[in-house]
Design goal:
This protein has about 400 residues and is of the alpha+beta class. Among the domains are: about 45 residues; about 220 residues, MetI-like (MetI-like fold), CATH 1.10.3720. The strands form 3 sheets. It has a 4-stranded antiparallel sheet. It has a two-stranded antiparallel sheet with strand order 4-5. Strands 6-7 form a two-stranded antiparallel ribbon. Helix 4 crosses helix 7 and helix 10 runs antiparallel to helix 11. The protein is globular.
Length: about 400
C-alpha cells in the first residue's frame, strides 16, 4: 500500500518537473529581455517609468465619450481611446450577432431565393479583406453623402451628411431612478425566463416569455415616469451657418463617419463567420429531433426555438467566442481611417510625443489581453449555463 502511494507521488513529481522547467525558462527569458532593454535604455539616456501618464497630453481627440481636451493628461487620453475601442467593439458584436443569426438561419431556408441571397452575402463579405471593406464604407459609401446644407433629412429629427449622422440628444431628469428601473426589469426578466423554463420542462406548459419580458421592460420604466418624477426631453440638431459658404449642425449628438464605417465593416464581416457557426450548429442537430418535435404538434418556429437552438448552442458558442475576440482585436484597424481608438490615440499620437515605446506598447497589449480574457470568461460562463445537463 505504501509502495502504491509512493509510486503515485513519484508520478506527480515527474509530471510537475517539466512544467516547473517551462515556467522557469519563461521567467528567465522575460528577465533577460527586460534587463537587456533597461541597460540599453540607460546607455542611451532614456528614462523608464509610467509617470508620463500624469503629464499634459497637449493634443485634441476628435471623438470622446467623456470630457477631454489638450489640457488633460496622457492617462485621460488613454481612457478616451479605451472607451472608444470598447464602444465600437460592443456595437460590432451586437449587430454581428443579429446579422449572423439571421443569415445563418436563412441559409437553411426552404425558400430558394432567401437561401441563395444569404449564401452570396457570406461568400462575398468573408472573402474580401476587412481593411478593404473599411475603406469602402468610409471612402466610397460615406464620402458620397451630401454636405450639411444638403443633408439627408429624416423628418427634421436627424440628418445624415458627409460629416456624420446628427441625432437628437437625450436630456434626462432623475436618470438614476430610470436606470435602477431598467436593472430591476432585467433581473425580473431573468427570473421570469427561469420560471418559464421550469414550467416547460416539468409540466410541459409553454408560457409567453417574450410577451411577459417585453411588458416587464416597458412597465417598470413607465412607472418611474408616472410616479417618480423621471422625465425625458430631446435636444434636436439644427443647421447653423458659420459663413456664407460654410454650414454645420448645432445641438444633438454627432456620430462621426469613422465610427459608422468601422462599425458597419466589422459587423458585416464578422457576421459571415457567425452565420456559418449558426448553420453548422443547426445542422448538428439530428433530423430525428426535428421530426419528433413536429410529431407532437410544434410548428417550425417552436421547433427552432425550443428544440433545435438549445442543442445547437453547444456547437455555436465556442467558435462564436473566437469571432467576438477577433472583432475586438480587428477594431485596431480603426487607425487606418483615423477613428480615435486606443491604437491611434495612445499607441500612435502619445507614443510619438513621449517616445515611451516600451511602456505604451506594453499598456496597449495588456489592455487588449484584458478585453479578450473578459470576453472569454463571460462566453465560457454562458456556454456552461446553456449546456444541456445530463442526468
Amino acid at each position: 500500500m505504501n509502495l502504491k502511494k509512493f509510486n503515485i507521488e513519484n508520478k506527480k513529481i515527474k509530471n510537475l518537473i517539466p512544467q516547473a522547467i517551462t515556467i522557469a525558462a519563461l521567467i528567465s527569458v522575460i528577465i533577460y529581455f527586460a534587463t537587456n532593454a533597461q541597460i540599453n535604455m540607460g546607455n542611451r539616456g532614456i528614462a523608464f517609468g509610467f509617470g508620463f501618464l500624469n503629464q499634459e497630453a497637449s493634443f485634441d481627440i476628435t471623438f470622446s465619450l467623456i470630457d477631454y481636451d489638450g489640457s488633460y493628461s496622457y492617462g485621460r487620453a488613454f481612457l478616451v481611446g479605451l472607451l472608444n475601442t470598447i464602444l465600437v467593439s460592443v456595437i460590432g458584436i451586437f449587430f454581428a450577432t443579429i446579422i449572423g443569426v439571421v443569415i445563418g438561419v436563412s441559409r437553411l431556408s426552404e425558400n430558394y431565393l432567401i437561401a441563395k441571397v444569404a449564401e452570396w452575402y457570406v461568400e462575398i463579405f468573408r472573402n474580401i479583406p476587412l481593411i478593404l471593406q473599411i475603406f469602402f464604407w468610409y471612402f466610397a459609401a460615406l464620402r458620397a453623402l451630401p454636405l450639411p446644407e444638403n443633408a439627408i433629412n429624416f423628418n427634421d429629427i436627424s440628418y445624415l451628411t458627409i460629416k456624420g449622422w446628427y441625432v437628437p440628444k437625450f436630456i434626462w431628469t432623475n436618470f438614476d431612478i430610470f436606470f435602477y428601473s431598467i436593472m430591476l426589469a432585467i433581473i425580473s426578466i431573468y427570473f421570469i425566463n427561469n420560471y418559464a423554463t421550469k414550467q416547460r420542462e416539468q409540466l410541459g406548459k409553454q408560457l409567453p416569455t417574450f410577451t411577459l419580458s417585453f411588458l416587464t421592460l416597458i412597465i417598470f420604466p413607465l412607472i418611474t415616469f408616472l410616479f417618480f418624477g423621471v422625465s425625458l426631453t430631446f435636444d434636436y440638431p439644427f443647421l447653423k451657418q458659420l459663413s456664407p459658404t460654410v454650414y454645420t449642425f448645432d445641438g444633438g449628438v454627432s456620430i462621426i463617419p469613422e465610427l459608422i464605417a468601422l462599425a458597419v465593416a466589422l459587423s458585416m464581416y464578422t457576421a459571415t463567420f457567425i452565420a456559418e457557426n449558426v448553420r453548422a450548429g443547426i445542422l448538428g442537430v439530428s433530423k430525428g429531433q426535428k421530426e419528433a418535435a413536429a410529431s407532437i404538434g410544434l410548428n417550425k418556429n417552436q421547433i427552432l426555438k425550443l428544440v433545435v437552438m438549445p442543442q445547437a448552442l453547444r456547437i455555436i458558442i465556442p467558435p462564436t467566442t473566437n469571432q467576438y475576440l477577433n472583432l475586438t482585436k480587428n477594431s485596431s484597424l480603426a487607425a487606418a481611417i483615423a477613428y480615435p481608438d486606443i491604437v491611434l490615440v495612445f499607441a500612435g499620437t502619445a507614443l510619438m510625443q513621449t517616445g515611451r515605446a516600451i511602456e505604451i506598447i506594453s499598456i496597449t497589449m495588456l489592455t487588449y489581453l484584458t478585453l479578450s480574457i473578459s470576453i472569454s470568461i463571460f462566453m465560457n460562463w454562458y456556454n456552461k449555463k446553456m449546456a444541456i445537463k445530463e442526468k
